[in-house]
Amino acid sequence: MKTVEFIYKDQVIEFLQGDSNIMVNATQMVKTFDKRLDHFLKTDQTKAFIQEFEFTLFGGNSDPKNKELIIKSRGHTGTFVHRILALKLAAWLSPKFELWIFFTIDKMINAQYKDIAETTTAKLKIEKERDLMQEEMLKKYPDDFYKFLELEGKLTKANRKRLKAIRDSTKELKLNLFPEDIAHYKKSDW
Fold first, then answer.
1. Half-sphere exposure of 8 (CA within 13 A, CB side)
2. What share of the chain is helix, strand, coil (3-state, %, to 5)?
């Protein structure tokens, strides 16, 4: 899992992003509000929620979830919780923080990767077309090399668009996380 750090009220909140899940550092979440994680985990409502969550079936799976997919202690770095439990914890801490957690997770899942996926797909299609053409040209039509070079130009352009989407996504995340710094960005940066 990849660790991504965000800042909420001067407190680092770590998110672990895997292929099919996001976990959030619950220890850091409660620290922001000077509360204790064990107090949240001991409530009857939280215990019932975790039990339901553990045995809720997703995707036709009849086996209960591994408890470590819901709550995982990582020693000195803290306890991480599944994104759904993180939302429950955030609601227990503060409505504003709940919204921040929700939007942060939402961006990680959807917005940030949409442009990257689209531009990467376009790049892969162009690469495939280029490779097939190169193979054909080498065998039959050496004079068609100019067409091959044209596709190389398109590939370069698609790569630039993909990198721009990554940069734009990163800038948007910075502005959403640190709106007070907007005055420091020049229009030419966009």
1. 23
2. 70, 15, 20
Mean pLDDT of the chain: 84
User: Which residues, at least 6 apart from 116, have a Cβ–Cβ distance to it below 8 Å?
Assistant: 162, 165, 166, 169
How many other CB atoms are found less than 10 A from the CB of residue 80? Answer: 25
CB-CB contact of 80 with 70 (8 Å): no
Other beta carbons within 10 Å of 33 = 14
Q: What is the pTM of this model?
A: 0.58
* Boundaries of every domain in the chain: 2-93, 110-177
**Element (H or E) spanning 70, and its range?**
none
Write out the two tokens for 27.
């220890």
DSSP helix/strand/coil, 1: coil
Tokens 């922001």 belong to 32
Q: How confident is the model at residue 182 (pLDDT cuts 50, 70, 90)?
A: low
User: In the structure, what pLDDT confidence band is assigned to residue 188 with cuts at 50, 70 and 90?
Assistant: very low
Least confident of 18-27, 117-126, 136-145: 136-145
